[in-house]
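Listing S7. Sequence submitted for prediction.
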Amino acid sequence: MFNRLWLAAGAMGAGVLGLLGCDQQRIDALHEGLSTEADVRAQFGEPVTIWPEADGSRTLEYNRQPMGHQNYMITIGTDGTMSALRQVLTPSVFAQVQVGMGQEQVRRLLGQPAKRMVFELKQETDWDWRWIDPPAREMVFTVTFGPDGRVLRSGSSEKLPEGR
């Protein structure tokens, strides 16, 4: 029994590493200022969401939740070339989440969450994103919204093993 669990855990870990490897290959094939939107779509496929920017550029969201630990925002400038490729599930981006922000602002900043939970009695909703604290510590960033859809609090915690 233990051997089967160990093998299953190893296979799951290999699957996650495989996703990371594939994404890294896709990223390596793209170059800021040179790659076009068509190049981005050829590497990453259809975006989950396309966010319009004030300057006329557009940001394509590529979500890797709930199985992965990344969400990518790839900006296409008004000239049609890629101007930025960012993995947004990082402490520096989490620090931009502030009390009072609306759900759409948070969604725009971090991409789709891995999980959404509604707590009716508390009148709160939690959104969770999975991320990695290098080199390999699995973490969960949680944003709690009040009944008005505004951030009450946020923070990270270490992901507990399944079943705990």
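Caption to Listing S7: primary sequence and predicted structure tokens for the chain studied. Residues 1-19 have pLDDT under 50 and may be disordered. The chain is about 30% helix and 35% strand.
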